[in-house]
Specification:
Chain B: InterPro entries: Cyt_c-like_dom, Cyt_c-like_dom_sf, Cyt_c_1A/1B. The complex is a heterodimer. Chain A is mainly β. Chain A has helices spanning 4-30, 37-43, 47-50, 61-68, 177-180, 229-234, and strands at residues 83-94, 100-113, 118-128, 134-152, 155-164, 204-213, 217-226, 245-259, 263-277, 286-299, 305-319, 331-345, 349-360, 375-384, 398-410, 431-439. Helix content of chain A is 13%, strand content 46%. Chain B is an all-alpha fold. Chain B has helices spanning 11-21, 57-60, 69-76, 80-83, 97-107. Classes of the chains: A mainly beta, B mainly alpha.
């Protein structure tokens, strides 16, 4: 057992890691994949054709089809430079700590169609470290090969391959945490939640094969391998967030969806199974199995009033390879749930409310000091995106002003004294921010 | 030009039908082509006649087609692939007669 000073040091390090993770998750939720003008230039469409709010990120059924078609659809006006950029400035007001005004992010997107069957999305993100130094990293990647307009039994069939680095990011319905970036940021979480500590998001590479039959039935299967720690470092990621060495990783997804033009709904299931060696010492592996389902509904009408609802429920079964303390249990479960509602008016004004809950089975040997890792958080966002519609002044650029409130009511199993010592409360993680995003 | 009396619908309601059925692929702005050609002035126009739009060979072959209200009614009332085999237009057709009349009336106002 560690001596008291070492235990305090270890706890402090863990707490700092948690604080960093919560901040990163907040940033992730606010700057997730957006409408990028390169697709509008390529297709001649407006951003608002693919996104409910014209700056994104929520996809309309038309946007889902564009993604399923491998980002290759075109307006037939010849080659368009597949490059876009985004700048984000943020006024951040955390519940504890100093407020700041910064250029927080500068992104370059290489995205769009290479051929009629090959297209993609690559985001290179440069983030302000708080001292006006920018750390550049390779963010989400989704490269696709697609065979369109096939027929099977007289019905339409689309088949494709996606090479991507974030399980779930490639999903067309985009409700899974990997695509929505909405996942509870707790002290632990499911593999499919990019806000979980040591999540595989952006630190793995994988390939999935997918198909859409009759415009309704979606299926996908694939596998992932984690990148070497040195590769993660070179791509801009702190090796401390290493997801570990992953073995025998499988990803499966099925969904049924209906586009009724004025409404859309979907119901899906997802599974990811892996054996994780963390740390990478050649020691025992944790067997992790995520089983989830998701439900979505969109009322689109004439696009004047759009309502989007989604619910995601992912249960992770864990069979641990080691027992770090005598109190630790050999098995456990973690359960992530996200319910999100968004209302968009004239595709310009959006109010989004997301409720995120992470719970876990009791394990006094792993979750200190309360034996449960439970976290409850909310994101409330109000956006204004004046451009990106058919009648907008320009299709070459887009703007979004957003007010975001991220709040916690429970963290690490408690609302108060969350790390066991007085003076640290879940609400200390609360933060309010105003962001201005420009894409061109 | 206005829609023929045979298909006299409510152009205002047709605007909503257009937004939910057509607007993702077609603009009503003159000269603005999306995945589909601009529908500005479509009623009365010859098929495959918008400059700078790359039509399918299948539609180019229909040189006798003029987008009259009757032609539009026939074309939009069934899957595009059946109305014009080989077309690149992906549309399952509008099977609500009132919505179809409203839509065609609205298209007739786009001048």
């Amino acid at each position: 057992m560690l001596s008291l000073p070492y235990r305090r040091m270890a706890r402090r390090t863990r707490n700092m890691t948690v604080l960093y993770g919560v901040g990163a998750a907040f940033s992730l939720a606010c700057t997730t994949a957006q409408a990028i003008p390169v697709y509008a230039r390529q297709t001649g469409s407006a951003c608002a054709d693919c996104h409910a709010g014209s700056y994104g990120p929520a996809l309309t059924p038309y946007g889902m089809r564009f993604k399923l078609n491998g980002y290759t659809d075109t307006g037939g006006k010849g080659f368009k430079l597949p490059v876009a950029a985004q700048l984000i400035g943020t006024r951040n007001v955390p519940a504890r700590g100093e407020s700041s005004n910064r250029l927080t992010e500068a992104d370059v997107y290489l995205a769009g169609r290479l051929t009629d069957q090959v297209g993609g999305y690559v985001k290179v993100s440069s983030n302000n470290d708080g001292h006006n130094r920018f750390d550049t990293k390779l963010s989400d990647v989704d490269l696709r090969f697609v065979a369109k307009e096939l027929k099977l039994g007289g019905k339409d069939l689309t088949l494709g391959v996606s090479v991507n680095n974030n399980p779930g990011f490639q999903d067309p319905i985009a409700a899974l945490p990997g695509a929505s970036s909405l996942g509870p940021p707790g002290v632990t979480g499911t593999v499919l939640n990019p806000s979980s500590p040591n999540a595989p998001a952006n630190r793995v590479i994988g390939a999935t094969v997918y198909g859409l039959y009759d415009s309704r039935w979606y299926g996908e299967a694939g596998t992932y391998n984690s990148l070497q720690r040195s590769t993660q470092d070179r791509l801009g990621y702190n090796p401390n967030g290493d997801p570990g060495k992953l073995h025998d990783t499988g990803y499966v997804r099925f969904a049924y969806m209906r586009d009724l033009r004025r409404q859309f709904f979907s119901a899906g299931v997802v599974a990811l199974s892996t054996k994780r060696e963390l740390p990478r010492t050649g020691g025992p592996k944790d067997k992790l199995t995520d089983l989830g389902y998701d439900l979505t509904y969109q009322y689109l009408g004439n696009r004047e009033h759009i309502v989007q609802l989604s619910y995601v429920n992912i249960l992770e079964q864990r069979k641990y390879g080691s027992l770090p303390t005598p109190l630790a249990k050999p098995r456990g479960t973690v359960h992530d749930q996200v319910a999100t509602a968004a209302y968009t008016f004239k595709q310009s004004y959006t109010l989004l409310v997301s409720h995120m809950v992470s719970t876990g089975s009791r394990d006094d040997g792993r979750f200190f000091p309360y034996g449960v890792p439970n976290t409850t958080a909310n994101l409330i966002s109000l956006y204004w995106a004046p451009f990106g519609k058919d009648d907008s002044y320009t299709a070459m650029a887009n703007l979004k002003l957003a007010a975001n409130w991220f709040r916690f009511t429970r963290f690490n199993g408690a609302s108060d004294n969350i790390f066991g010592a007085p003076g640290t409360n879940a609400r200390d993680f609360n933060a309010f921010s105003i962001t201005a995003s420009v894409a061109f | 030009m206005t829609a023929s009396p045979a298909f006299a619908g409510d152009a205002s309601a047709g605007s909503d039908v257009f937004k939910s059925e057509c607007a993702e692929c077609h603009s009503i702005k003159e000269g603005r082509n999306k995945k589909g050609p601009s529908l500005f002035g479509v009623v009365g126009r010859k098929a495959a006649a918008v400059p700078d739009y790359e039509y399918s060979d299948a539609l180019r072959a229909q040189s006798a087609w003029v987008w009259t209200p009757e032609q539009l009614h026939s074309y939009l009332g069934q899957p595009a692939k059946r109305a014009n085999p080989g077309t690149k237009m992906k549309y399952d057709g509008l099977n609500d007669p009132k919505q179809l009349d409203d839509l065609i009336s609205y298209l007739g106002t786009l001048h």
